Amino acid sequence: MLLWLHDEIKNIQKKDPASGLWIEILLCYPGLHALIFHKFAHLLYKTKLPIIPRLISHFSRWLTGIEIHPGAKFGKRVFIDHGKGVVIGETTIIGNDVVIYQGVTLGGTSTKKVKRHPTLGNNIVVGCGAKILGNITIGDNCQIGANSVVIKDVPSNSTVIGIPARIVLHQGRKVHERDPLNHNLMPDPEADAIRCLVTKIKELESAIKVLAKETGSKEVEKILDQQPLPKFLEDNGADPKKDTMQNIDDYIHGLGI
Questions:
Q1: Where do the domains of the chain lie, and which CATH numbers do they carry?
Q2: Tens digits of per-residue pLDDT, 157-196?
Q3: Were 61 and a residue from 67, 125, 144, 156 both cysteine, which residue would form a disulfide, CB within 3.0 to 4.6 Å?
């Protein structure tokens, strides 16, 4: 138990730049507290002792805000960061070196007494608010984007985002090997699609302007040059000096966030 605790504290110091001395981590990290309670609850759960394991997990939830069923299985160096609102179901299996942020649900999709919760491999980051549901498998070296809803198996070395989650990176290697916790580096397929449309519209507008000049249609040029700024862009701090397409491009890159 002491060796396990030492390993967990070292892991937190490695992965959390805000961590301090070992005593601070031991006293002030609810994710660690939840795992300590779970160690005892799971041990008793395996003996088929009734009530007591659930009482321990219930007290742990009250103290930490993290709900872990006594039946869940954990590997080594699992770090539940912040942890508030994390729910981990009975038949969940979690591998080694997994980071779980606040608001994550590892939930079941069946009312039968079968394997109904997810299995997570090694070296996985589960972003805040993500939901992984059902008896599915998340392969090694994966990233689950914040607020994603995962309902299908995810192959190793993948990044998934969205509702429902889609694979956006899968290259047979670790995703963002140098900085696996840097969520802002994760791709955004919706923004990429919108950006392609914006580019195409710009090209079409340019072609229309050329045709308007060739045909002497000044009215068409005037309409293209005086497009009103959409209200959603105004509400999000768009620059009225820029044209609509430039403001849309700014919006895609995070205007108003």
A1: 2-185 (2.160.10.10), 189-252 (no CATH)
A2: 999 998 888 888 876 544 444 455 555 556 666 667 777 8
A3: 67
